[in-house]
């Protein structure tokens, strides 16, 4: 035993030093205190490994790229506003439209784009129909196709999209594909090689670089975007892969919400893409080729909202909160990962106590168990307050939706969890047209037919091991 003492002493000393560094870094971070406490506990309770987890998952390498992204956003915003006027796009002339409870104007103040009128919005609740519409739009592309996805698989669905993009690139269409380095960690370069060889441009967002100590699984690009010729846009919760079309035996049917957009608001989706593209690859895109003059094609009021860790106030989190406190009749939320912060928990309970019909739709078959059990920790308090919680049983519930009073809704890539509201880049659309909000609510009501409502008394009798799992997982909920 004594022969191992030198090694044990060295390991113990190293752990003390690393733990001290982690604690210093966590408490000096300007991020939320709950996350700092969680990381301190991880470092203290898991010797050596805890410090490694912080290095990979924590904030040790987050502030520098986030600050760089923030500076780029401000610089790009100023430049783009000038270019918009010169190129005669609608962006410079549009002003916020008065909308339900003034939430449209509030969203602008926290970083969203103005409310834009004259749009035509198509809501997809079946992923196969959404993917078919996406493929159809790309087939019709004349000048460019821009894509930005968190996950792109190299399976049959991914290959179908990549083969089409390759054909379009060969035909002279500009193809730009931005994928997240962590979300697409299993995507082989060989799958992308034909597209690159055909002239398409393909890049990873904040790529993993071991030699430069960039192994950061936070600050990820969770956005889902496609823009065709600057005139047709798609966004929502659906990534590209077989499981998203219901072809994975484990998940089965895949329930997601995806939007097709035509009209002036497409310019905002385009700007989100070109800013991200320019940030990572220094290729500015401007002019009428990318921002054409967009006439009114419908009656939908749409407001594009982007958010990320480069924002002082996370736009999606602020608007989720604003929607909750503004609700007077009903508040319906669908999210596969429901891990709210304390402020959102209090707001939801108070909404129910005010007499608002609060319903939360979550998944039943989890794909991420830590997030799943962390979310369950909050269910008991919600149920006690009268909030109705449902678990989707038909398959995988991946939709990210909030609908309020039949007047206002958010549909996008952001989950109702800390990761989406603090650590990831997200994008979505705020819907200000009651007819479109009614579609969202109708889809939600239909989903409840394939869901089980949690019984407060039955849930209180759940097994002890489940309670232990919930309490352990919720300790790290601020960093999920």
Alpha carbon gyration radius: 23 Å
**Beta-strand fraction estimate:** 15-25%
CATH superfamily grouping of the largest domain: Endonuclease Chain A
As an assembly, this protein is single chain
Spatial gap, N to C terminus: 40 Å
DSSP E strands, number: 19
Tell me, rounded to a whole number, the average pLDDT.
Answer: 86
Compute the number of structural domains. Answer: 3
**Shape, principal axes of CA atoms:** globular
Structural class by helix and strand composition: alpha/beta
- Tell me which CATH architecture of the largest domain applies here: 2-Layer Sandwich
List segments where confidence is low: pLDDT < 50 over at least 5 consecutive residues: 82-98
Q: What kind of sheet is the major sheet?
A: 17 strands, mixed
How does this model look, in words?
α2 (33-45) runs antiparallel to α3. The protein starts with a helix and ends in a 5-residue tail after the last helix. The longest helix has 24 residues, at 5-28. It is α/β, with parallel strands linked by helices and 480 residues long. It has three domains: 2-60; 64-92 and 121-295, Endonuclease, Chain A; 315-479, Endonuclease, Chain A (2-Layer Sandwich). Helix content is 43%, strand content 21%. Residues 82-98 have low confidence and may be disordered. It has helices at residues 5-28, 33-45, 49-57, 63-86, 103-109, 127-139, 156-170, 189-197, 266-281, 315-326, 342-353, 369-376, 379-385, 418-423, 434-448, 456-460, 464-475, and strands at residues 116-126, 144-149, 174-180, 201-205, 220-221, 225-228, 232-236, 253-262, 300-307, 330-334, 338-339, 357-363, 388-392, 395-397, 401-404, 408-412, 416-417, 424-431, 451-453. The protein contains 17 helices and 19 strands. It has a 17-stranded mixed β-sheet that branches.
């Amino acid at each position: 035993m004594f022969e191992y003492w030198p090694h044990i002493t060295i390991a113990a000393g190293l752990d003390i030093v690393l733990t001290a560094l982690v604690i210093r870094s966590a408490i000096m971070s300007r991020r939320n205190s709950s996350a700092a406490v969680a990381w301190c506990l991880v470092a203290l309770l898991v010797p050596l490994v805890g410090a490694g987890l912080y290095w990979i998952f924590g904030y040790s390498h987050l502030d520098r790229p986030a600050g760089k992204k923030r500076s780029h956003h401000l610089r790009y915003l100023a430049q783009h506003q000038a270019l918009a006027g010169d190129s005669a796009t609608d962006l410079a002339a549009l002003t916020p439209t008065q909308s339900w409870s003034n939430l449209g104007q509030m969203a602008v103040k926290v970083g969203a784009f103005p409310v834009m009128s004259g749009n035509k919005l198509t809501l997809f609740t079946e992923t196969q129909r959404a993917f078919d519409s996406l493929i159809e739009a790309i087939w019709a592309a004349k000048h460019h196709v821009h894509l930005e996805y968190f996950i792109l698989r190299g399976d049959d669905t991914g290959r179908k999209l990549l083969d089409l993009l390759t054909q379009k690139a060969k035909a002279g269409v500009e193809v730009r594909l931005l994928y997240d380095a962590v979300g697409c960690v299993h995507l082989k370069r060989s799958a992308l090689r034909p597209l690159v060889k055909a002239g398409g441009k393909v890049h990873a967002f904040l790529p993993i670089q071991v030699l430069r100590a960039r192994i950061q699984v936070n600050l990820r690009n969770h956005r889902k975007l496609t823009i065709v010729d600057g005139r047709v846009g798609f966004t929502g919760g659906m990534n590209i892969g077989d499981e998203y079309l219901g072809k994975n035996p484990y998940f089965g049917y895949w329930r997601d919400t995806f939007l097709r957009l035509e009209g002036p608001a497409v310019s905002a989706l385009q700007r989100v893409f070109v800013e991200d593209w320019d940030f990572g690859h220094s290729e500015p895109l401007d002019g009428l080729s990318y921002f054409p003059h967009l006439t009114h094609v419908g009656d939908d009021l749409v407001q594009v909202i982007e958010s990320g860790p480069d924002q002082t106030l996370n736009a999606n989190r602020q608007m989720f909160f604003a929607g909750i406190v503004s609700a007077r009749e009903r508040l319906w939320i669908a999210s596969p990962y429901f891990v709210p912060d304390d402020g959102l928990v209090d707001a939801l309970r108070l909404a129910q106590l005010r007499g608002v019909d609060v319903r939360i739709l979550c998944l039943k078959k989890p794909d991420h168990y830590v997030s799943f059990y962390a979310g369950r920790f909050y269910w008991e308090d919600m149920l006690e307050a009268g909030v109705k919680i449902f678990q989707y049983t038909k398959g995988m519930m991946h939709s990210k939706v909030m609908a309020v009073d039949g007047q206002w809704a958010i549909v996008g890539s952001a989950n109702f969890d800390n990761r989406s509201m603090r650590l990831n880049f997200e994008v979505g659309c705020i819907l200000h047209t009651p007819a479109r909000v009614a579609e969202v609510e109708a889809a939600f009501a239909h989903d409840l037919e394939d869901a089980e409502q949690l019984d407060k008394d039955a849930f209180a009798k759940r097994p002890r091991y489940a309670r232990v799992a919930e309490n352990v997982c919720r300790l790290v909920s601020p960093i999920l």
